[in-house]
Amino acid sequence: MADLRDFPDQAYSGVHHGPLQEGEWITLQDSKGRRHSVNLERGKIFHTTKGGIEHDQLIDGPDAVVIRSKGGVEYLALRPLMADYSVSMPRGAAVIYPKDTAQIVTMADIFPGAKVVEAGAGSGALTTALLRAVGINGQVISFERREDFAEVARKNVTGFFGAEHPAWRLEVGDLVEKLNEQDVDRVVLDMLAPWECVDVAAEALSPGGVLCAYVATTTQLSRFVETLRAHGEFTEPRAWESLVRDWHVEGLAVRPGHRMQGHTAFLVTARRMAHGVQAPRKKRRPAPGAYGDDYAGPRRAEPSTERSVEPSAEPSVQSSGDMPTATGPSATDT
Predict the structure, then answer these.
(1) What is the pLDDT, as a whole number, of residue 303?
(2) Domains of the chain and CATH, by start
(3) Which tens digit of pLDDT belongs to each residue from 277-310?
(4) Residue ranges under compositional bias (Polar residues) (predicted)?
(5) What is the mean pLDDT of the chain?
């Protein structure tokens, strides 16, 4: 009798039960922890330095078994978890790794039924996590500028779920030019210049919605955060990174592992205020020189009520393209 939990065409979880089937991905792991991703095909052989492994030995058999190569070496065969699949999938663009994917899903509060906009789709690693989180009653709209990357993402996402996910729409093009959605719950940006999307994201997001960005460098981080502040209708941005370190545990030999997942990117989240409502200003003074003569980034406009009370506060701004510039003397914020 079929396992009633295994209906990938209806549940779209990417999780399968029962015997291994042709077309499924499996992970083979040797005794040293080296992993190989294999797509099962009848009649095929996976070749290793220790001999081949016939796919037919695994097809129609159970998950989580030990199989021997022709050279007598044992391999653990398992269906991959989503984290395993995301780091081993074919790539166009670099993938967002599981440690950051988990942070995005949790800290951006991706929930079942949510309407989420994503840019760009990359290789589809984050997309699979977003789709699993929103479920078939939600919606994920992914924008990818490059058609070749979009095709890689489509194949990877479809390969994970086993079919086209009904909650997913993939658009080839620039989010700034093509986004015309309203009442969006979450916007997730993984791109070189996420600050270019702030105004469009603000128009699409519902009040209280979350804007989340994944940026690799400190200069990207600074410009995006300051652009959010200059916009004025987002809460104070929160920026952080996550570092993951394994531990070696054998009896009394307990120590940090020799490898760790260090810096991959910074994450930034902020919530959309109601339209026309300015967020409260940050009360803590910036570090001396943070907005001094050398600073040429975005600046938040000074409300008139504060200007009359605090004459030495930051100057007002005029927007010039995507980089606002100060109209008054430079502020040192000392």
Answers:
(1) 60
(2) 10-80 (3.10.330.20), 84-246+256-272 (3.40.50.150)
(3) 999 887 878 888 898 888 989 988 766 544 334 4
(4) 315-334
(5) 88
In sequence order, the β-bridge partners of residue 10 are: none
Residue with the larger pLDDT of the pair 54 and 324 = 54
Mean pLDDT of 145-172: 95
Residue 300 confidence (pLDDT): 81
Degrees (nearest 5) of the Cα angle 301, 216, 267? 65
Name the 3-class secondary structure at 86: helix
Chain position carrying tokens 């969006």: 184
List CB contacts of 36: < 8 A, sequence separation 6 or more: 27, 28, 29, 46, 48
Compute the average pLDDT of residues 104-120: 97
Residue 87 neighbours by CB under 8 Å, 6+ apart: 95, 97, 98, 125
Given this model, what pLDDT does residue 286 score?
Answer: 86
Q: What does the angle CA 248 – CA 251 – CA 256 come to, to the nearest 5 degrees?
A: 20
Cα–Cα distance for residue pair 37/87, rounded to 1 Å: 10
Pairing of β 168-172 and β 139-144: parallel
Joined together, the tokens standing for residue 61 give 């058999």
Question: Is-contact 120 178, C-beta < 8 A?
Answer: no
> How far is 189 from 60, CA to CA, in rounded Å?
41
